[in-house]
Amino acid sequence: MTNPIPPAGAALRGAVDLSALVQRQAQSDSTAQGAHAASGPTDQIVFETDDAAFGSTLELSRTVPVVVALWATWSEPSKTLLASLERLVRARNGRLVLAAADADRSPQLVQAFQAKSIPTVVAVIAGQPVPLFEGVQPDEVLDQLFDQLLELAGQHGVSGSIAPSEGEAGAEPESAAPVEAPLPPLHQEAYDAIERGDFAAAASAYRTAIVQNPRDALAVAGLAQANLLGRLNGKTLDEIRSAAAAAPDDLGAQLDVADLDLSGGHVADAFDRLLTMFPGLDVDGKKLVRERLVELFEVVGVDDARVVDARRRLTNLLY
Predict the structure, then answer these.
(1) Which of 37, 71, 68, 56 has its CA nearest to residue 131?
(2) Count of CB atoms situated within 10 Å of the CB of 25
(3) Which of 51, 167, 172, 315 is deepest in the core (most CB within 10 A)?
(4) Residues 271, 225: Cα–Cα separation, whole Å
(5) 3-state secondary structure of 121
């Protein structure tokens, strides 16, 4: 994809309202989960963010432009890109910061930024998103992009800087992997399981966390995400779509496509597919679709407008 460098005088292009995302995170006590940039560990120039910590990342963008990289441990191109982004961000001595978000851990960010592939890079300036590019870009393109991003930020009154930590300025990073703040033990256990592809173990850890604290909203959303990843594991996009096209009345095939659509950010399409099928299903089929929709609602966020609409539609179909 060609790099859409924003014109220096461009207005901030907010594809989504990030405030809704932050409101959902606030219910999850995101500060306890790791506000890396605001108060966190030693490295404040390059750090990790996720669904839980993004509130502090958004607040930081009012002081300094934040480059958000959606990456994944299974994506070698995204690891390559992270190394380039980190090197070029550090070279600007705190006038830019880099927030790396693991897409597998951050379904709400993937959805909010409408990421259709990994890696995807956006900027956030004064709380507003600026879409940048998808895929890997050469250093000279990134360099030009960052210069224009700083100019754009200055025109919107965001011209602060973050003081590098001791030993940070001018130093070559040993690794592109961001620094990660400690998580509650069961959440960490689940994340570790997701990283090694053991989605059943991740789901088990989240279920235990919910038993210990039924109000743990992050664990509820995490369980839904782990289940979604587990269902998609080992299946290719072509296989899923071909199976659904060949058997439009096969509920299992349509459920798979709904999972695929939602994981790719096509939330409304996923909900519409299942809700359109719902009236023609038998009792068992309706029960399965209702349960799947409730789970997908958790992945997206129960306060999301698309979830509200889909839940209302489901209620009308049920009664």
Answers:
(1) 68
(2) 24
(3) 51
(4) 16
(5) strand
Q: Where in the sequence is the domain holding 43, given as residue range(s)?
A: 18-155
Are 147 and 195 in the same domain? no
* Cα–Cα distance measured from residue 274 to residue 260, given in angstroms and rounded to the nearest whole number: 13
Q: Report DSSP letters for 161-185, one per residue.
A: --PPPTTTTTPPPS-SSPP-----H
Q: How many residues does the chain have?
A: 319
Residue 49: in which H helix or E strand, if any? strand 46-49
Three-class DSSP category at 224 = helix
Average pLDDT over residues 87-104: 92
- CATH number, domain of 22, equals 3.40.30.10
If you average pLDDT over residues 267-274, what whole number do you get?
93
At 50 the pLDDT is 87
Q: Are 268 and 306 in contact (CB under 8 A)?
A: yes
Give the type of residue at 171. A
CATH number of domain containing 264: 1.25.40
Q: Encoding tokens for residue 26?
A: 């606030």
Q: Quick: pLDDT tens for 172-200.
A: 444 444 444 457 889 889 888 888 889 99
